[in-house]
Amino acid sequence: MSNGKLVLTPFEKALETLEDILQHPKDEIVRDATIQRFEYTYELAWKMIKRHLDWAGNSNTANLTRRELFREAANAKLISDADAWFDYHEARNETSHTYEVTAAEEVYEAAKKFAPDARALLTELKKHHG
Predict the structure, then answer these.
(1) The domain 9-129 belongs to what CATH superfamily?
(2) Global pTM exceeds 0.85
(3) What residues does each domain of the chain span?
(4) How many Å apart are CA 48 and CA 7, to the nearest integer?
(5) Span 48-75, pLDDT tens digits
């Protein structure tokens, strides 16, 4: 276990922007802003998971697939449901196709589910690094 603590501020601020946009009534602009905020918040979330696992002494994270990383995070009690995070990863991969209304709506719905799970992750990370 490393002595240094992770800097959680960028992840926390990104999550706050996602939570903020989700408070607005959905229209096309809010949907698109939500998708963009989901993208960068998701990216920071999985990187925080990886960094925390490295910090905790899991030296194998460089060789893990994203699915394996989420399984490790669930085993470490950082997240409660790896399957949900698999879905968020798929939604993140779909963000390049959000010019299609159906894909955009699916990613928007995933972002709504992601926000509370990302908040729970941040809470767990703060127990170690806060």
Answers:
(1) Nucleotidyltransferases  domain 2 (1.20.120.330)
(2) yes
(3) 9-129
(4) 9
(5) 999 999 999 987 898 999 999 999 999 9
